[in-house]
Amino acid sequence: MIMKLYAFCITFMLSLLSCFGQETHIIEPSILEISYHTKYLNSYDDYALRIGKNVSEYFSYHTLRFDSLGSNPETVLAIINEKIKAIQNNNKTTHKVESPNSGDYLYRNLEEGRMTTYTQVWDSHYKITEDIPTPEWIIHEDSTRSVIGFNCTMATTHFRGRDWKVWFSEEIPLPLGPWKLGGLPGLILAAHCDGYLDIIASNIKREQLSPVKFYNFWEKKYKDIDRLSYLKKASDPTIYPKNTTFFPKMELE
What is the pLDDT of residues 140-178, one digit of tens each? Predict the structure, then answer.
């Protein structure tokens, strides 16, 4: 069974390499990078919010590593072996590196007021462009906490079908945060959605930063799609193989 899986993985990855090649480009220098740790049930992931003067990007470190190494002929076999070990240990470990929408790359262009999400539904790749969303926040001045040494204030909102509770710090006066959360007078350093997801900043880096980049290691061809059409398509069970395991999506509406 393992040998068959190994052969399948090699064939699959090499077929990708024959069709795609690395392509990425720098958008602008970074001024700040925030690392976030996310927890969903018994799974976790680690994300970066990389911020430039005009453009910010949000992505999973683990997805970036897989895309980078998996698209390189010299390192693709190491990634295949990692995936096989993960499958073998699936029932032996209590924590897995997974999270909802972990394959997405999100870009916010503050100058243009636009957000672009690069995502996929099974084997199709899509580009969603929208105005940068601004949730309707209620700020709770009397509810505060410290996150990685910064004084934070709580705010709540109902956004895209879910109730969110976040903590933002005016000590970092940027209207940004993890995923699509933002629009407050300070950077969001923690976010919580009951029964779904926890996000908390684990580090802030100000020096020796990687630039804000557009990542497309596989040279995927993204089709334009509006957000609601994407949500409808992504929730259609008929386009996935049988017994596919689904993460509840970040957006429900």
Answer: 999 999 999 999 999 999 999 999 999 999 999 999 999
Domain 24-60+95-239 has CATH 3.30.70: no
Characterize 202-226 residue by residue with b for buried, 16 or more Cβ atoms within 10 angstroms of its Cβ, and e for exposed: eebeeeeeeebbebbbbebebeebe
The H or E element containing residue 159 is: strand 150-159
Asked if 118 contacts 130 with a C-beta cutoff of 8 angstroms, the reply is no
Cα separation of 242 and 69, whole Å? 29
CB 108 within 8 A of CB 188: no
Q: How many helices (H) and strands (E) does the chain have?
A: 4, 15
Give the residue extent of every domain in the chain: 24-60+95-239
